[in-house]
Amino acid sequence: MVISALHAARLRGEHFHAMSLGGVVLCIALWMRAKTVDQDERGNAERRALFVGLWPPTLWLIGDSLHEHGRRRRLRR
Question: Coil, strand, or helix at residue 38?
Answer without folding.
Answer: coil
